[in-house]
Design a protein that fits this description.
Length: 184
Amino acid sequence: MPRPLQVSFVAGASGPWRIDGITPVIGASLPPAERLRVVESFQTFASVGGIWTLRGVTSNVRYTNEHELDALVARQQGLGRANATRAALIPIRKTEAWWALAQDQRRTILEEQSRHIGIGLEYLPAVARRLHHSRELDEPFDFLTWFEYAPEHSTAFEELVRRLRETSEWKYVDREVDIRLSRQ
């Protein structure tokens, strides 16, 4: 398993990603900004400034079984592909009721009821994704989900997000912001 990667998403006046829109889905939004840069480090979070910064850490896969993990590894392609000029950063915070559940109960809601992992698998490798955990960092969100895809896969990405938001898992979300980005 790779070492945890500390990632800062820094919104401000500079960065390779143009922020095309910031839309509150549930709860409060984030302040507007023009650009986003993604700062990655294996050492420590960098002092990065910006209008707002969201921080998260990559981690071990927590809710998958062996078969699902094998399927994810086989189909997932990396981030930073040249043709993936569209991205979405979707920070999510879950309710205290979610965190009060035992891990196996969360797994049941996440996959057996909602098919979160199964739905995501349907869109690989067109939509690359990486999950960042933030709850333990005293950040305003529990998860920072980062997606990259080519413009011709925009419709597929919209379908993926719609399908996930329609699941029973989403009744446990109490804050979600949808940030859409593009780069040349």
